[in-house]
Specification:
Layout: H1 2-12, E1 16-19, E2 25-28, H2 30-45, H3 49-52, H4 54-61, H5 75-86, H6 89-102, H7 105-130, E3 133-134, E4 141-142, H8 145-153, H9 164-196, H10 200-215, H11 220-246, H12 251-262, H13 273-288, H14 296-299, H15 307-334, H16 346-358, H17 360-393, H18 397-416, H19 420-459
Antiparallel strand pairs: 1-2, 3-4
Helix pairs in contact: 1-19, 2-7, 2-19, 4-15, 5-11, 5-15, 5-17, 6-13, 6-15, 6-16, 7-12, 7-13, 7-15, 7-19, 8-9, 8-19, 9-10, 9-17, 9-18, 9-19, 10-17, 10-18, 11-15, 11-17, 16-17, 17-18
Length: 460
């Protein structure tokens, strides 16, 4: 436990503290020190890709499927899988926590982090495409950071079965996704108990059974997510739009509050500018996952005409996650009178806000939408696990099935009991994934930039 806590503090704790005027301080964690400069670096190298090529992202997202390999998935389907895992509890409870701790200004820094993260997401997804392999078990393609890290460290003239850093990345991913499975189970059972007074045991049994039917079938994952993700994201956006229109007169004051608190012009909860910036940045990084290496596990599976196209689609995925969905949660929160949510935290706070806006329907809606967000995340992370299990244990159904069963057990346990230690496994896992991913991503990024230049030349 002591070693685990040390690793957690190194990754997420304040590694450097910068004093600020007014008595507050800016604490920088290792992950922030890695991801924010990397985001700036990739944004400059791609010549501000999120702004410059946004119309091209929309165009690619609406293209017709053109699959060349049996069992493969389209670029848009890979985007749907990565969106399923990005759009999860972080967009609901996580945004609430960021605003509670850092004030409304945290929203602005979430937006900034997402725009920087888009370029990082482009680089890692493009590399995943460049180093993908055919998948002998599931059909189609597979890949991700474990595979491009392997190619970076293992030279062609000296082939080896494993690369140490690639193994560490794959193990970190599998640990992270097991931890997240338990968090999902607990969040869903808690939300349904609050909304419908259903005992956690019943909710958890149904959740695990439905999940098992999908994940234990060979290729049901993509078909299910193709249906769930657009519906859940669309309904959440429409409900938020209704709430915004209903409270249209409050919008100017909400945006004024966001920008004023973003730069410390108004003292925010929990310590001023430093808390505002770091809560927004950390939540943005954790939510959109850019740089963590998780989304490339889906991006590599895409059967698409050019690697840069999948990179642009994954950059668009960061926009959907943070600029659209996280902003929806922020608006629901910030359009609620502050007195109604005093003393509340997490899911209770969000349900209280929805009850204010939509009455009992709001509480039921947020419980159902959390179920969909969480369920799709669980299915998505097991898709991510496929290439990493294959890298570690080879191409066999036994290892693939055993990991799925382990994740289902964690989902069940999480629905009944909240173990803080296992919850933190998710944070430590994603932190270690980011560190190992970045070791290869930055040196290999020239290949991603060359692919972008090639694609833009073809467009011209």
């Amino acid at each position: 436990m002591a070693v685990f806590q040390f690793v957690y503090n190194v990754l997420w704790g304040d590694l450097i503290t910068i004093p600020l005027p007014g008595g507050s301080a800016l604490g920088l964690s290792l992950l922030v020190l890695i991801l924010i400069p990397s985001g700036i670096y990739f944004t400059v190298r791609t010549r501000f890709l999120p702004f410059r090529l946004f119309p091209e992202m929309l165009k690619i997202a609406t293209e017709k499927k053109n699959l060349s390999l049996k069992g493969s998935i389209s670029g848009v389907q890979a985007l749907i899988i990565s969106t399923a895992t990005r759009v999860g509890m972080g967009n609901l409870v996580g945004v609430v926590a960021a605003i509670s701790a850092g004030g409304a200004g945290a929203v602005f820094w979430m937006w900034v982090t997402a725009l920087l993260g888009s370029s990082t997401a482009f680089a890692e997804a493009t590399l995943a495409q460049l180093y993908k392999e055919k998948d002998p078990l599931y059909g189609g393609y597979r890949g991700g950071p474990a595979y491009y890290i392997h190619h970076f460290f293992v030279k062609e003239d000296k082939p080896r079965r494993y690369s140490v850093i690639a193994v560490l990345f794959a193990l970190s991913g599998l640990i992270c996704w097991c931890g997240i499975s338990q968090v999902i189970g607990n969040s869903v059972s808690s939300a349904f108990e609050n909304a419908f007074q259903i005992p956690p045991l019943y909710t958890t049994i149904i959740l695990v059974l439905v999940a098992a039917v999908i994940v234990l079938r060979k290729n049901a994952t993509v078909k299910v997510l193709d249906v769930i993700v657009p519906i859940m994201a669309g309904f959440y956006f429409l409900i938020t739009l209704f709430i915004i229109i209903k409270n249209f007169g409050l919008l100017p004051s909400v945006f004024q509050r966001i920008f004023a608190e973003a730069f410390g012009l108004r003292q925010a909860v929990a310590g001023g500018f430093g808390a505002v910036l770091m809560n927004g940045a950390k939540r943005g990084l954790f939510s959109n996952e850019a740089g963590s290496g998780s989304a490339p596990c889906a991006a590599a599976a895409a059967d698409i005409s050019h690697p840069a196209k999948e990179g642009l689609l994954q950059a668009f995925g960061v926009f959907i996650d943070t600029i659209v969905i996280c902003s929806c949660s922020a608006m629901i929160m910030l359009l609620t009178p502050e007195g109604l949510t005093d003393g509340l935290q997490g899911m209770d706070l969000l349900q209280a806000a929805m009850q204010h806006h939509l009455g009992t329907f709001g509480v039921i809606f947020i419980a159902v939408i959390l179920w969909l967000f969480s369920f799709s995340t669980f299915i998505g992370i097991l898709f991510y696990a496929r290439p990493n299990v294959a890298y570690l244990f080879g191409d066999n159904w036994i290892s693939q099935t055993l990991y799925k069963l382990l994740a289902l057990v964690m989902l069940f346990v999480g629905g009944l009991v909240a173990y803080t230690f296992v919850w933190d496994l998710g944070d430590v896992g994603v932190g270690l994934m980011t560190v190992f991913n970045m070791i290869a991503l930055i040196p290999l990024s020239k290949k991603a930039m060359d692919s972008l230049k090639e694609y833009e030349s073809a467009l011209k």
